[in-house]
Amino acid sequence: DTEVTQTPKHLVMGMTNKKSLKCEQHMGHRAMYWYKQKAKKPPELMFVYSYEKLSINESVPSRFSPECPNSSLLNLHLHALQPEDSALYLCASSPQSRESGNTIYFGEGSWLTVV
Amino acid sequence: KQEVTQIPAALSVPEGENLVLNCSFTDSAIYNLQWFRQDPGKGLTSLLLIQSSQREQTSGRLNASLDKSSGRSTLYIAASQPGDSATYLCAATHMDSNYQLIWGAGTKLIIKP
User: Is B91 in contact with A42 (Cβ distance < 8 A)?
Assistant: First the structure.
């Protein structure tokens, strides 16, 4: 099972709302990622969790707040977003094992529209 | 600073043809290089990963090669089908980082029936 599951698939939220994106993997991977992708652009890394600890934050605004409750789950809490934050948000995971090559697996993404 | 380039940005070929997608990178100190496929409005699907010690990887009709000395990787698709239509992205991981993928901008491939 090489699946990363993301919910919801689509989310429309107002600029004053608080919402969350959720991600789950059951591959035993110890690294999990949030990426943001705008139309016709490659993904941009936002956050990396390694062994449930935040290891990379790519200078993401504080209105995005990641959380890793356990090794299988990753959340992205959203608050006071701007219309320019509308994008496809992708979750990914990888074994974090150099022996396995560290292939990264992506979910289908959550389409976020901020109105 | 690593830069990854994919040329052309778009490619249209008739069904049944064999084709090659190109990916070039400026820093040969890569740990691995991955090829992904993305269908419109969807997430990314990992196609092939080539580790720095490898020269090529194969999966079905796909073959990816890696030449670190020339800073190039190619994705060869044999006997193309309309279902192969998608955007193909390559991404390199640097030796110093297990997490940071440096992405190409992608090649949008259209296979005409």
Answer: yes
Residue reference for tokens 């935040």: A54
Q: Where does the pLDDT of residue B100 fall: very low under 50, low under 70, confident under 90, or very high at 90 and above?
A: confident
- Spatial distance between the Cα atoms of B55 and A47, rounded to a whole number of angstroms: 31
Whether residue B5 contacts residue B23, with contact meaning beta carbons closer than 8 Å, is answered with yes
Cβ–Cβ gap A31/B32 under 8 Å: no
**B98:A96 CB<8 A:** yes
Minimum-distance CB partner of B49 among A31, A55, A101: A101
Taking Cα atoms as reference points, which of A72, A60, A84, A94 lies closest to residue A22? Answer: A72
A-chain residues near B91 (CB < 8 A): 42
Alpha-carbon dihedral angle through residues B82, B59, B49, A28, given to the nearest 10 degrees: 100
A31 has pLDDT over 70: yes
- Maximum alpha-carbon separation in chain A: 45
The pLDDT of residue A100: 59
